[in-house]
Design goal:
The chain is mainly α and 97 residues long. It contains three helices and no strands. Helix 2 packs antiparallel against helix 3.
């Protein structure tokens, strides 16, 4: 009853798994700088991909399990496109005034 819990200490060197996890985290959190042409076209790419995914659901001959996922993916892409376009328009309008 009088025993104390062992104190967890951090080892001096990281294991191979910890090094790999740290490297993956750094890669995922790194900022990506896109060329201006790609950056400006991104909302329209999202919009076209969303509309294409929605149209793909119309050509599925029967009701398969994938149809709701197509619709969800299409809605997410169209939503992202509208969000980016509105955000850019507001930002540009704010900078002009």
């Amino acid at each position: 009853m009088g025993e104390k819990a062992p104190v967890m200490t951090r080892p001096d060197s990281l294991s191979a798994t910890e090094i790999l996890n740290t490297a993956q985290t750094v890669i995922l959190l790194r900022r990506i700088w896109l060329p201006r042409v790609v950056y400006e076209a991104l909302p329209f790419v999202y919009l076209i991909a969303g509309l294409a995914a929605f149209l793909a659901t119309l050509y599925v001959p029967e009701w398969y399990w994938i149809v709701p996922w197509y619709v969800l993916f299409a809605c997410a892409l169209v939503h992202a496109a509208i969000y980016l376009l509105l955000r850019r328009l507001r930002s540009r309008a704010r900078h002009l005034t």
